[in-house]
Design a protein that fits this description.
The structure holds two protein chains of two kinds. Chain A is an alpha+beta fold. Chain A has 17 helices and 19 strands. In chain A, strand 1 and strand 2 form a beta hairpin. In chain A, helix 5 runs parallel beside helix 12, helix 12 runs antiparallel to helix 13 and helix 15 runs antiparallel to helix 17. By secondary structure, chain B is of the alpha/beta class. Helix content of chain B is about 40%, strand content about 20%. A five-stranded parallel beta sheet of chain B has the order 2-1-3-4-5, sandwiched between helices. In chain B, strand 3, helix 4 and strand 4 form a beta-alpha-beta unit. The chains are: A alpha+beta, B alpha/beta. Chains A and B meet through helix 12 and helix 13 of A and helix 2 of B.
Chain lengths: ~625, ~120
């Protein structure tokens, strides 16, 4: 029989242990030792209910073969312990083996123990475990003993619950701090690759699930495949040891360390990374497990890859593992890719709590990818805006220049008319001068001088005319016209010149070109300009190839197209940027207005002109004309 | 003298002295009688003093410009032929130009102008 003093002593010791450091195993072990020794039992064990509440596992024991005990798992309701846990009722059996609820485990040699007292551990009306005590000799448990053990069980339940909550919050705290570290590091690096590396390195960190290796694969829309992007992990067990110990040394300032490591790009040289980057899996239902992960948007924890119908066997062979897990990367409902993890070197089982954290990392990785995509889009848009701004400035400059030249042209025109007009009169007067033979020579040269003035004024007048056309292109005089026949007409003009300059011409007219709306005079001018440039580029002879056809330009509407290629060696790079600038010319004669006028005319038709430069070979000029004019074609 | 009386009279209106002089020389060589005016106001005075058979009219002039003056001329006497002369062709788009009998872009070569004058006077 228990004395009151002993009862108090037991309770005092138990509560002392229960309030010590929150170490579950240690606490339970000490408590059952107190129970066994002070209350003179022969064996004692504590079973704990697993978190999901379906199975009981041994938490601590003494007086029983521990290694065998560790293997025992009881379903709720199974055996005496299972019954106690399910009914939350204490059970005292003086002849335990005779009870129908008794479940016999031969390994434990339970026949050695005659009597069994089993009490439930209840916290918040939930059973969290069971305390069992055994005696070798038959024993009738007294009500005081039962009461005392129930009291202890209550105290232990509170203690166990607190420790479990404490452990859980510790784990959550750790996860939060890792995620915080990672997100901090990711934000510091704008390079997509670095961001992803940081996340993969987080996944393989000990505190964060500590997966041995991880691979990132992304969905390639165009090929319909998963592509390996990077792999992080040691190449050998020795390598694994080296890396892990170096990480453990850098526990402080982990963020800085991660970032500096990412920038070293060292990871990209590992054999595992090379392997990961070559991975390709078609995204087809029922083809492979990775595709399933993408299509079903769920994670897979594969325990036995060899016997899984969707796991590629060559993949297992290459990775050297039989179990692994994969999670999808999802952003805005869309699967961007997957993350693969395995424990190649320590063979640790992949459990749910690790996968939960992995899923959170996956969310981070999705953000990184999405952010980088958005950032790149922003860069593209910005670049586009800058280009447009540049074009606008150019356009403004041109239109200012246009107005200025119109003004200047007008002011110059009148004096030119006078100079040229009087030079003509002068020439006539001189020629009609009744000269004596001795003066004939003098008169001839004077007439010649006037002739020069007349010719030069003619040149200036034609320059002014070009400038005025350029600055005031004016409205188009549009009729339906055939590009083919206009081209034939223009080539006819060049025929003699081409023959003299030893230039061959090869023309291929498309039969499907219907007449298009155009200002025939202006388009004739364009064609002459383009051909003239081609001819000028080939002083030693060469070949011009002309083709007309219907083209789909910029994936929009069909355009009537004229393609003119020459063999003049192309345009020098420094010249190329200026070819559409008015007054820019490489020729000794000419106004430099040819291409810019041509461009203006074609654009006023709603078309476009494109110059393809092949240095060392020649130039291809494309003229695109819309089949119908839009209403604003007359806009200057 | 009868020949002289039959000479067609042309009024040249232009603010540029040298252009006026050139036109006078050239047109007189063609056998016309030429009077000159350096502005719309002066031209109006000349027409009242001695009505011409044809007027060549510059568009861009200080004071009243050629297009305004054309309107006044045509309102006053629709049958008086007026040829607009301008340094550039862009005025061709201006609908007020339609009231004129012809439009000639100024050039050192006066061939086109002379031809136009001849055509208009012969048709009259």
């Amino acid at each position: 029989m228990l004395e009151k003093n002993l009862v108090l002593e037991v309770l005092k010791e138990v509560s002392k242990i229960a309030n010590s450091a929150p170490d579950l195993n240690n606490t339970l072990q000490k408590i059952i030792e107190v129970i066994k020794n002070k209350m003179t039992f022969d064996a004692c064990s504590i079973f704990l209910l697993e978190e999901n509440g379906s199975r009981l596992k041994v938490g601590a024991s003494c007086g029983l073969p521990e290694d065998l005990l560790a293997k025992i798992q009881l379903e709720l309701g199974q055996g005496v312990t299972g019954w106690v846990a399910q009914t939350k009722t204490s059970l005292a059996l003086s002849e335990a083996m005779k009870d129908p609820r008794f479940h016999y485990f031969p390994d434990l040699a339970e026949e050695n123990f005659k009597s069994l007292l089993s009490v439930p551990m209840v916290a918040d009306q939930q059973c969290i475990g069971v305390i069992n005590v055994h005696t070798v000799d038959r024993r009738e448990f007294s009500s005081l003993e039962i009461n005392l053990l129930e009291t202890i069980a209550n105290q232990v339940s509170g203690c166990v619950r607190n420790i479990l909550i404490y452990n859980q919050s510790q784990r959550l705290l750790k996860e939060q701090s890792i995620l915080y570290d990672i997100s901090l590091a990711v934000q510091t690096s704008l390079k997509l690759e670095h961001g992803l590396w940081i996340i993969l390195s987080g996944i393989t960190r000990e505190e964060a699930g500590g997966f041995n290796r991880s691979i990132l694969l992304t969905v390639n829309e165009s090929s319909g495949e998963l592509h390996g992007i990077m792999g992080l992990g040691p190449d050998s067990p020795e390598d694994a040891h080296r890396i892990w110990s170096s990480i453990n040394h850098k526990r402080n300032g982990i963020t800085e360390w991660i970032i500096s490591e990412a920038e070293k790009d060292e990871y990209s040289r590992s054999g595992f990374n090379e392997f990961a980057k070559d991975l390709r899996f078609p995204i087809e239902a029922g083809n492979n497990i990775f595709a399933e992960c993408v299509l079903k948007k769920t994670l897979f924890n594969i325990n036995d890859g060899q016997n899984h119908p969707l796991v590629p066997k060559d993949f297992l062979q290459a990775t050297g593992v039989n179990s692994f897990a994969i999670v999808p990367l999802i952003s805005h409902e869309e699967v961007l890719g997957i993350i693969y993890v395995d424990n190649r070197y320590n063979y640790q089982e992949i459990v749910d709590s690790h996968l939960n954290l992995l899923t959170r990392f996956a969310t981070h990785a999705s953000w990184v990818i999405e952010n980088s995509r958005l950032f790149n889009k922003l860069l593209d848009t910005n670049r586009e805006l800058l280009t447009i701004k540049g074009q606008l400035i150019e356009y403004e400059k041109l239109s200012a220049l246009g107005e200025l030249s119109a003004e200047v042209a007008h002011e110059i025109k009148n004096p030119l008319v006078s100079i040229g007009g009087f030079a003509r009169r002068l020439k006539e007067k001189i020629e009609n001068f009744p000269a004596v033979p001795q003066q004939k020579k003098e008169i001839e040269s004077a007439s010649n001088y006037s002739e020069i003035i007349v010719t030069e004024v003619g040149r200036l007048e034609s320059l002014l005319k070009n400038i005025l056309i350029y600055s005031k292109s004016g409205a188009l005089n549009v009729h339906q016209g055939s590009l083919n026949s206009l081209l034939k007409e223009v080539i006819e003009i060049f025929q003699t010149g081409l023959f003299i300059k030893k230039i061959k011409i090869d023309v291929c007219y498309s039969g499907e070109l219907e007449p298009i709306p155009m200002d025939v005079q202006k388009i004739r001018q364009v064609l002459i300009n383009i051909l003239f440039n081609s001819v000028e580029s080939m002083p030693q002879g060469g070949k011009i190839t002309i083709e007309t056809y219907l083209d789909t330009h910029l994936n929009r509407e069909k355009m009537a197209t004229v393609k003119v290629s020459d063999t003049g060696g192309g345009i020098m790079p420094e010249v190329l940027a200026n070819i559409f600038n008015p007054f820019f010319t490489t020729k000794d004669s000419g106004t430099g207005l040819g291409l810019s006028i041509s461009q203006k005319i074609i654009e006023s038709h709603g078309g476009s002109i494109r110059v393809e430069n092949n240095p060392g070979i020649g130039v291809i000029v494309y003229l695109f004309f819309p089949l119908k004019l839009s209403s604003d074609y007359t806009k200057p | 003298m009868t020949q002289e009386l039959k000479k067609k009279k042309i009024l040249v209106v232009d603010d540029e002295d040298n252009i006026r002089f050139l036109y006078k020389e050239e047109l007189e060589d063609e056998g016309y009688s030429v009077t000159l005016a350096d502005s719309a106001e002066q031209a109006m005075q000349r027409i009242e003093e001695d009505p011409p058979d044809l007027v060549t009219l510059d568009i861009k002039m200080p004071g009243m410009d050629g297009l305004e003056f054309l309107k006044i001329l045509k309102e006053k006497d629709k049958s008086l032929p007026v040829i607009l002369c301008s340094a550039y062709g862009s005025f061709k788009q201006d609908f007020r130009v339609w009231a004129s009998d012809a439009y000639v872009v100024k050039s050192a070569d006066l061939h086109e102008l002379k031809l136009t004058i001849k055509e208009i006077l012969e048709a009259a």
